[in-house]
Amino acid sequence: MTLNKNGVSSAMVCKLGALCLLTGLVFSACNGTDPIKEKRNSIAEALKREQEREQLRISEHYDFKTWNAPTDDKGKAKPYMIPVAKGDTTDMELARFWKSASNAGYVFLAGSKPANTYPVYFESNSESDHKSLKLETKAGTRIFGMGSYVVPGSVYNGKLNMLKLIAAPLEATLFGSEYILMPFRLSASVRYKAGAEMINGIDKKKLDSKDKGSIVAVFYEVDQTLIKDGNDADTYLTGLNLHTDPRVIAKAVCEIEDTKGEDWVRIESSFTVMNKEAWETLDFKTKKYRLALVLSSSYMGDKFFGAVGSTLLVDKLEIKGEPLSK
After folding, report:
1. 8 A C-beta contact, residue 316 and residue 61
2. Structure confidence at residue 21 as a pLDDT band (50, 70, 90)
3. Of 101, 127, 195, 312, which has the fewest beta carbons less than 10 angstroms from its beta carbon?
4. How many angstroms separate the CA atoms of 221 and 245, rounded?
5. Which Pfam families match (predicted)?
6. What separation, in Å, do the N-terminal and C-terminal C-alpha atoms of the chain show?
């Protein structure tokens, strides 16, 4: 028989342990508690709360069924097309929901080429005439230190500063439009095929990586102190700071690799909170917020990296958000 330092045998320890366990179970039973049942009930309650929250969430759907040529402020049609959003009330490009710096800048390379040769166009099903968004990375050029040898196909919501489009293209994209919900989830139906060779669009050097498509949603606070003489341009995030600015509160990112065949693939990403303090103190009554949606055929297009021929097709895009509960 083996005794511990208190003179108690190991067999006695086992018996005491079993007695304690039995006593605990009897005590739980006497008090009407069942640990397993309590755990099961806790899970059921959590699922019920999540279902209730899901019913409160509001979906915003974006399809790409309708297209036309945007116009300038004098009513002249541009040589390319962009999707028409359900809230668009005019063809004038600067007032439309969707913008495409890719198409606007490609005008200088395209010359008299038709709209279907631009980085942003539509894919049409010949049987049903159903249209989806088609983003394709095109070959570009550099002149006098400006431009890029790759032009990713990209659309976003927000504004477009035409004056900066050539000399400072990343500053020309002003991302986002007003949003009054707590963003929860981004989802889309996509198809993707990467181009053969990833290059640096500034020096044409080959990169040891493969291209991907991307769909990004960024929720950020509008700093109203940056409005100058009625000009709110500085309150927008741009291609320079979309992912790094401290005003970013939450974001959802989908990087899309090659898909197989002709079937649509559903992708989704929940929003990740980047600024917990700002998230917990959201105030839609006294503050303003924007949600930026950016879709691109080359996920590192903001660094001028991409593969010519990379193609992203998007059939449906959905953002789910929920009302502020407090």
Report:
1. yes
2. very low
3. 127
4. 10
5. PCMD
6. 65
